[in-house]
Fold this sequence. Notes:
Layout: E1 7-8, E2 29-33, E3 36-40, H1 45-49, E4 56-60, H2 71-79, E5 84-88, H3 106-119, E6 124-129, H4 133-142, E7 147-151, H5 179-187, H6 196-199, H7 207-214, E8 229-234, H8 246-254, E9 257-262, H9 274-289
Helix pairs in contact: 2-9, 3-4
Amino acid sequence: MAAMTTATLAPAASLGIDPLDFGLADRLATRPAGQGRLLIGKAADAFTSGPCARPGLLFVPGAYHGAWCFAHYLDYFAHAGLACAAVDVRGHGPLPQHADFIRAGIADLAQDVIAALDVLDGPVIVVGHSMGALPALLAATQRPVTGVILMAPSPPANLPGALALPPVPEDAVRRAPADTEIRARFLATSPERDVSAVMRRITPESPQVLNDRYLLRVPVDPAAITAPGLCLEAGLDTHDRHPPGQDRAIARLFGFDHAVLAGQPHCMMYGDDWRASASVILDWHRKRFG
């Protein structure tokens, strides 16, 4: 069984960057990938010019989110010398939501992740956040990956004791969360925090995607994933969706390492202390791959 570790993180230096400023995402190069698109980090030459010695990172966002939510991570890992990219799956980020988006499920989003893996040249670690963990895992069962990282992941259907949630109506797309939910669930921040920068970018979500997760309709075969992995648990996550022990159980199911990131909100990639979560990923990468 993989080693199970717990990390308690101290606040990272602010460096004067607003964690809710996602402007970098608007300046990065893009490439089509299936019905989605790739947002390419600054140091992504290894993805486009041949295999590299150290694996790059492909980030998969969760429900309502697009590749923009990893803007800080793309900059951070690019400056660390790693190839990196994030994927806008169909209907997310700036991509249009066509009439058939209402019928898109997690298996469809996984096809966009697979298309992204096919575009990238060289060894890749796929990184899925929240609901994005499920298409990331599905893609890892169908394409060779060098590693898998799950951030505050949604559980697969075959996780013993996985928590199901009430379904949403399937006759309309689900509107994006309100500012109160962004503050409380995504960021674990004060009720007065200005989250308009997030609200401008999140999108409505397919009800099929949500119910695939809520009703536990997406199993993932652990035997189909042979790469090493890491499961990051957000210490400030809400227990209604991430009950105590669930993230550790996901790590155990797949034989991944597990770390509890104390003080981190659900959306740790743009929380106030996002560098701390990024540093845990970078440390794991260096220990595994040099």
